[in-house]
Amino acid sequence: MSSSSDPQHTLQNLSDEYQKLQTDLQPLITSLRRLESQSQENLSVQREFSTLSDDSKIYKLIGPVLLKQEKAEAESAVEGRLGWIEGEIKRVSSQIEDLQSKSEKKKMEVSLSILSSLKPTPYRPTAGKVHVD
Q1: What three-state secondary structure class fits 66?
Q2: CA-CA distance, 56 to 70, in Å (whole number)?
Q3: Buried b / exposed e along 68-84 (16+ C-beta atoms within 10 A)
Q4: HSE on the CB side for 109, CA within 13 Å?
Q5: Which pLDDT score, from 0 to 100, does residue 132 have?
Q6: Where are the beta strands (DSSP E) in 2-132?
């Protein structure tokens, strides 16, 4: 391989690595949005529970069947889900931050590779008179 194609090969590898990081980021962002949506739904259910009396009838949908559930049991289940969702949001957010950081570093490497591959043109004074207003 000649030395003139080596910078191009390096640039292509860096660009491919950057694209892979961006591709890996998309499912994590989708997952975070889904988790945030689930969190909002469960918070809404939790707010609804606070407006119910202790003897209110609560039903849980399991497949095609509605099963009666005690209010305390239902509240506990929602709190448990919220705890799990919060943990998942933190875990996925951390993964996103890590990939974004790696992606920014790779982007800088690509930029530096492009800049270093550019050959500066030597300065050549022009012949003739310089016109100054």
Answers
A1: strand
A2: 8
A3: eeeeeebbeebeebbee
A4: 17
A5: 60
A6: 58-62, 65-69
Residue 14 and residue 75: Cα distance in Å, rounded?
A: 50
Distance in angstroms (rounded) separating the CA atoms of residues 84 and 86: 5
Q: Which two tokens stand for residue 82?
A: 């919220």
Contact call for residues 99 and 25 (beta carbons, < 8 A): yes
Q: Which two tokens stand for residue 90?
A: 């933190």
Q: What per-residue confidence (pLDDT) applies to 114?
A: 85
CA distance 101 to 95: 10
CB-based contacts of 109, cutoff 8 Å, min separation 6: 14
**Overall pTM > 0.85:** no
Chain length of the chain = 133
Please name the residue that has the structure tokens 């945030």: 36
